[in-house]
Amino acid sequence: MTAADSADGASAGADGGSGRRLTLAGQFLALQIGIIVIVLVMVAAVSLAQSDVRLRQTESRRMLAVAESTAARDTVRVGLTDASRRDVLAPLAESIRVLSGADLVVVHDDSGRPITLDPAPVDDADEAGLPGVATALSGRAWTGVSDVGGERTVAAAVPVIGEGGAILGVVVAGSDYPGPGELLVLATPNLLVYLGIASVLGVVGSLLLSRRVKRQTLGLEPEQITRLVEHREAMLHGLKEGVLGLDADDRVTLVNDAAVRLLDLPAHSVGADLAGLDVPDGLRDVLLGRVRGRDTIVAVGDRLVALNRMPLETEGRAVGSVTTMRDRTDLVELQNELDASRTTTDTLRAQAHEFANRLHVISGLLELSEYDEAARYVSQIGGARARLSARVTERIKDPSLAALLIAKASLAAEQGAQLRVAPTADLGHLSEELAADLVTVAANLVDNALDAATQTAGPDRRAWVEVDVAGGDGEPVRVSVRDSGPGVPSELADRVFQHGYTTKDVAGRKRGLGLAIVALVCARCGGEATVSGSEFTAVLYDRHDDEEKGP
Q1: Nearest CA to 75 among 140, 141, 171, 173?
Q2: 152-161, 283-292, 444-453: which has the minimum mean pLDDT?
C-alpha cells in the first residue's frame, strides 16, 4: 500500500465519520471569507467617515463663498441701512439661494434678528435657529454644522461691513446635511471599487491558501493527521530496532525508546543539537554520514550497535536523515566464539599435521631398524612438548588460558613463528566470567600479533610473539602481547580499537573486528585496552567481585 492509498483511505474514513463537517481547506476558505467581510465592513465605515469629512469641508467652503458674495453686495448694504428699502432683501436672498443651490440664505440686522425669513421675523435669533450670528456680529466669519428648524445644516455666517468698518448685519447661508443613505450614495463609486478589489483579492488569496494547505497536508484533515501522528508514535516506540532522525541542521527530530536505550541518550532528546549530545565520535561520524556502509558497527558503552543511515531528500534538496540501529553485541560474541572454534580447528589441524610428520619420521626409523635413533627422537619431541606444557602451566594457573596458549604455540609453529610466555608471567586462579573474558581478549591479541609478525618476517628475521600475563586470585588481570612486527604508529593508537579499522592488507576480507572486541570486553569489565608500538596491553577486572562490593 502506498502513502497516497493510505491518505485516500484515511480521507474516506474521515468523510464517513464526520458527516457534513467542512474540510480543512473549506474551513480555511470560510475563515478567510469571514475575515474579508469584516475588513470590507471596516473599509465601508472608513469610507463613510471620509465622505462625511469631505462633505463638511466642501459644503462649508461653498456656503462661506455664498455668504461672502451676498454680504459684499451694495443692495444688501443699502437694505440694511435704509429701512424704506429693506423689502428688497427678501427677494434678493431668495434669488441668491436659488442660483447658488443653497437651502438657506438669511440676512440679519445689526441686532441679530433675521429679516428675510418667512414667516415673519422674530425678535430672538436663537429661536430662529440660525447659528453663528453672534460670532459674525463680532466681526469674524463662522462655519459649522448645527440644527436649523430641527434639521442638521452646514452653515456659514459672514458679517456685512459698511463704511468705516461698521457691522451693518449678518448674512447666513446654509445647506441641508445629508443623511446616512445620501452619504453612502456619495461614497458608493469609490467604495464599490475598494470593495471589489478587496473581494477579488481576498477570494483568490483564500482559494490559493486552501489549495496550498491541502497540498501540504496531502489532502488529509486535522483528525486524520492527528491519528497518523499517534500511529507513528506508537509504531516508533513499539519497534525493537532503534530509530533516530536528524534534520538538515543536525538536530534530532525523532527518537524512539530503543534508540534512547542503545545510545544512552537523554529521555527528551527531540529538538536537541547532535553536537550537544554526549555521543562517541565514531557514532557521530556514522549519524552525520561521514562514515558510510551497511550494518556499520560502533561500540557504544559496553554494547556493539549496528547502524544503517538513510539520507532524506525533498525535490533534490537534503532535508535530513534517518538511522536505524540494532544491538549486535550477542551476535558479535557468537561470531567471536565461532572464530575461536575455527582457530581451535586450525590448531588441531596443525597439530595433526605435525603429529603425522613425526609419525612418518618414527615409522621411517623403524623401517630402517634405527631403534635407538627412534627412541631418542620420541624422547626429544615428547620432552619439548612436556617442557612447553610445564612452562605454561607453571606460570598460568587458569587452565583455559594455558590450553589456549599451548594451542596457539602449535599454530604459530606451523606459520613459522614462535609463541613464548614471558618469564615474568604469573597468573593466579580466576572466576569463570573473568576467565572467559580473558581467553577472548588473549586470543584476539595473539591472533593480531601473529598476523603482524608473520607479514614482516623474512629469511634473516624470524617472527615471534611474547605473552605476559599477571594477576588473578581476586586481583585485576593485566595481559600484554608483544610481537616482532613494526608496531602501530602513535598517531593511530586510538583508531586501531575502532570497528572496521585495520592496518593489514584485507584482500577482500572483512577485518578490523578483533581489536574492537578486545576494547569492548575490557570496557565491560571496567578496564581498558592500550597500544604502544608493537605491545598491546589489556586490563580486566572481575565483574563478579564488583557486584559483591555493591555500589
Answers
A1: 171
A2: 283-292
What is the pLDDT confidence band of residue 478, given thresholds at 50, 70 and 90?
very high
User: Rounded distance, CA 105 to CA 121, Å?
Assistant: 14
Residue 257 is predicted with a pLDDT of 81
Partners of 159 in the beta sheet?
Answer: 170
How many angstroms separate the CA atoms of 328 and 307, rounded? Answer: 10
Burial class for 485, CB neighbours closer than 10 Å (0-12, 13-18, 19+): buried
How many whole angstroms separate alpha carbon 247 and alpha carbon 218?
21
- Output DSSP code: residue 23: P
CA angle in degrees (0–180, nearest 5) for 38-44-45: 90
**Nearest 5°: phi and psi at 478?**
-120, 120
pTM: 0.45
Lowest mean pLDDT of 115-119, 201-205, 446-450, name the range: 115-119
Cα–Cα distance between 320 and 322 in angstroms, integer? 7
Q: Identify the CA nearest to 65 among candidates 175, 212, 230, 196.
A: 175
* 3-class DSSP assignment, residue 143: strand
Whether 479 has a pLDDT exceeding 90, the answer reads: yes
Q: Give the residue-averaged pLDDT of 147-170.
A: 84
Q: How many CB atoms lie within 10 A of CB 130?
A: 25
What's the rounded Cα separation, in Å, for the pair 479 and 460?
29
Helix 3-18 and helix 222-238: axis angle, to 10°? 130
Q: How far does CA 249 lie from the centroid of its chain?
A: 7
Q: 283 with 263: CB under 8 angstroms? A: yes
Which residue in 480, 429, 446, 439 sits closest to 337, CA to CA? 439
Q: Is the pLDDT score of 49 beyond 60?
A: yes
Question: What CA–CA distances, in Å, run from 133 to 106, 113, 143, 201?
Answer: 11, 9, 10, 52
> In whole angstroms, what is the distance from residue 106 CA to residue 14 CA?
76
Q: What pLDDT digit, counting tens, does each position of 285-315 carry?
A: 888 888 777 777 777 776 778 888 888 887 7
413-437 b/e with 16+ CB inside 10 Å = b? Answer: eebebebbbeeebebeebeeebbeb
Complete domains list, the chain, with CATH? 69-179 (3.30.450.20), 239-327 (3.30.450.20), 331-549 (3.30.565.10)
Secondary structure element (H or E) that encloses residue 415, with its range: none
Q: At 342, which amino acid appears?
A: R
Residue 59 predicted with pLDDT over 50:
yes
Region 272-285: mean pLDDT is 81
Cell 615471534 belongs to residue: 464
CA quadruple 279, 284, 287, 288: dihedral sign: positive
Lowest-confidence pick of 103-112, 193-202, 290-299, 457-466? 193-202
Strands 317-327 and 104-109 turn out to be unpaired
